[in-house]
Structure formats: structure tokens, C-alpha cells
# Entry
Amino acid sequence: MHVIVIGAGLAGLTTAYYLQRDGAQVTVIDRAAGPGLETSFANGALLHPSLVEPWNSPGVFWQVLRWIGREDAPMLLRAKAIPGLLTWGPRFLRNSTPERFALNTQKNLRLAIYSLQLMQQIREQTPIRYEHQARGLIAVFRSEAMQRQMLHAAEALARHGLAFRPLDQAGLLSLEPALAPIAGQLVGGIHYPTDEGGDAHLFCRELTRVLEQGGARLRFGLSADSIHAQGRRISHIQCAGESLQADAYVLAAGSYSPLLARSAGLSLPIRPGKGYSITMPRGRAAQAAPRIGIIDADLHAVVVPVGEDRVRVAGTAELAGYDLSIRPQRIENLKRLLERMFPRFAEKMTSGDFLPWTGLRPMCADGVPILGATRLDNLFLNTGHGHLGWTLAAASGRLVADSVVRRAPSAAVAVDPADYSLQRFA
Ligand SMILES: Cc1cc2nc3c(=O)[nH]c(=O)nc-3n(C[C@H](O)[C@H](O)[C@H](O)COP(=O)(O)OP(=O)(O)OC[C@H]3O[C@@H](n4cnc5c(N)ncnc54)[C@H](O)[C@@H]3O)c2cc1C
# Structure
């Protein structure tokens, strides 16, 4: 069986990996010059079952309205994006009822737990190394209201398998001494010991190497222009100057998936959610830098170590269409967040130390990815992971490969593929 995967980000490459293990002949195409150069490039570097809640939490409508026009808003809606959100927006809001939000959170958690199990297998069964760290994640709180809210959320997830431990100030400092300069501002924290860290781009590069060694064909610099359906099947993909054919096709083009799906007559409820990160060397102020990922729940940002020699700040979302320009105000926000969280580290940085980046999270209207079969017999989807694409990568790849080769999902796992099917929007 020959399968063409469109997209060499986390979603496409993990699918290709499992397809190859299942004996398929795989071709991966990507318009970029190499693997993982779009949203999988400089993300928050965390695999976080602790943060699987969709962004459409109850009350999100009023929050987004309040934040309009505020450059420091955690989620900023830009006027030019509104026409593109006319069908997606109401769906996003319909999924913000407490019941749907809780159900969608649980779907993501099950997939996240499965994913971390599979990541461990990948580390054991392949030479892939990606600056993995297993020290967990700490959430810190500046207000008692936020502490109560996050403890409540953690308790709800703990009933479905999430591990967590509340921390007082002393507990916070013993886990992460670099928090000492701001300890007086913190009312407490939570440690999520099973969260992990790792460099997504490095993982994509390593996975590409493994795929190529196993005989897969990786074609970079090749853009898919359209996907052609004939009756209930895809007949071919049209790329610049050539048409490609296979027995099955996997669409894993991140935020661009809905644009390609449309050419095959499918509508995907996915829109881009722009995010930013800055990455800097830890060298000059290593003692003052975090050793463990920290999320400041009140400031809506994460500061994470990436491997032994870098620190990254990531956060905030903008609904701004497909605009990939880097806005200086958003980068200044991230620098200010770093100053507020790790002031002694931040003061040692010079402007040349910061590597700014932006990427488009493929945000599905219900906050859960879309995986598996479509009404076209040989077209499969692995997309819509929003802020969770690294956390859910391995499990998503496994489930989609299962669906392509028509293999029953592993009996040991409590995930139901129907929870992630496009059919849920029918
Ligand atoms: C600031 C930020 C922080 C984040 N932090 C985290 C985190 O800490 N943990 C986490 O779990 N997730 C995080 N995410 C989300 C995660 O990075 C994404 O969900 C994930 O990278 C999406 O992977 P993907 O493979 O679907 O998309 P992409 O990585 O964008 O890959 C899609 C690929 O398709 C290719 N492509 C698109 N169109 C075409 C075409 N027409 N023809 C050929 N190729 C095409 C692109 O070149 C690209 O390589 C973060 C995202 C952002 C923006």
C-alpha cells in the first residue's frame, strides 16, 4: 500500500512513522525546505496532559470581547479575521458550555496520556533524541482566585488519570530555586509530574531521518495545490507541474488543511490561532534560569528550558487569519513576561539574545483534533490540534495510521477513535 502524507510537521511525520511500521510505502510531501519548519518549529516545547483544556472555556465570549484592541491580551481577535470566522466562531462558542468543555477536555486528556506512553516507546525503540526532559511542569499563581480555579480543574482531571501535587511557597522553591526573586508575589503552585518537555523541531528532524532510513520518500519544496476527488475516492493530488497518485492520502497540513480539504469538497472547522515565542541562550545567567517548565497562570505564559542550553517563552493567541508577520508589541509582551517571572535571568539578556518566532496553531472549533477517515474512502485527516499538537502528536499519528491500514486500535488504550472523527461535526 502506498500512502502520500501532505505535511511534514508533527502530525504528518508521526503518521508516516506508524504507517511505515505497519508496512506501508510512504511518501511525505511538504512545501517547506525541511521538516517541522512551520507551527512545529519553536512551540512551547511541552507535552502537557495538564493543559488539555480547549480554549473555548465557559465565558470565553465575554473574555474575548473584553480583550479586543488590547495588545497584551491572552487571546486577541483582530477585525480583519472576523469574516473568516463566520461559521467557525459560532461553533467555537457552542462548544463553550460547561458540559461540552468538560467532555472535550477529557477526550484530549485520554489522547495525551496515550501519547506520552507512545513517546516512551519511540525513545526505547528508535535512536530518536529530542532533548526530552521528564521533570514535569509547575503552574504558579499570583492570586488565590487563580489558585482555586486551577486546583479545581486539576481535581477534575485527576478523576480521569492526571497526576498533580499542590505546592506551597517552600515546595515551589525546592522544586525550582530560580523562582526565589518572585516568591513573595506567589500564593502557591501545582506540580504536574507527568508533563514532559522536548524540542519539537529536533524531533521532526530526527523522525525524518528514521523515515528515510526505513525507505520512505520525503519530498521537500513541493506544494500541494489541490486534492482531486472522483466519486467517493481521491484520484490524485495536483502539485506544481506534476500530479501524484497513491492508494491512500493523509492530510496533515496544519492550519492550511481546510484550504486543501476544500478542493476535495470537505469543510474542516479549523482556523489559524497565531502564537509567538522567543528563544534565548541560558549560558550567561544559567543559575537564574528555570530548570523546569513554568506556567504563570495569571500571565498566560510559559517559560521553559529547551535542552540544556536554551530557554523559551511562549504564549498568547491572536485570531488574525493567515498573517505571519511578527508584531514587535507581541514580542515585547513576551519579554515583559520573562522579566516578571525570572527578573534576574531577564536582566542579563541583551536584545540580540532573543530569537522571535510566530506560528499558526490549527484550532478546531471544539478544541479537539480531527483524526481518521472522511467520507472519501481513501482520504484521512490528522489536523486541528490547536495548542496541543506536540502533546498529542504520537497518539494522533498512531490512530490515523490505524485507520488507514484498518487496524483495530490497541486494546490496552481507552481512546475511542470516534471521539476524534470529522463525523462529529456532521
Ligand atoms: C506559540 C506556540 C506554542 C505552542 N506550544 C505548544 C506546546 O508547548 N505543546 C503542544 O503540545 N503544542 C504546542 N503548540 C501547538 C503545536 O505546535 C501545533 O499544534 C503543532 O505544531 C501542529 O502540527 P502540524 O503538523 O499539524 O502543523 P505544522 O507543524 O504547521 O505542519 C504542517 C506542514 O504542512 C505543510 N503544508 C501546509 N500546506 C501545504 C501545502 N499546500 N503543500 C505542502 N505542504 C504544506 C507546512 O509546510 C507544514 O510543514 C504551540 C503552538 C504555538 C504557535
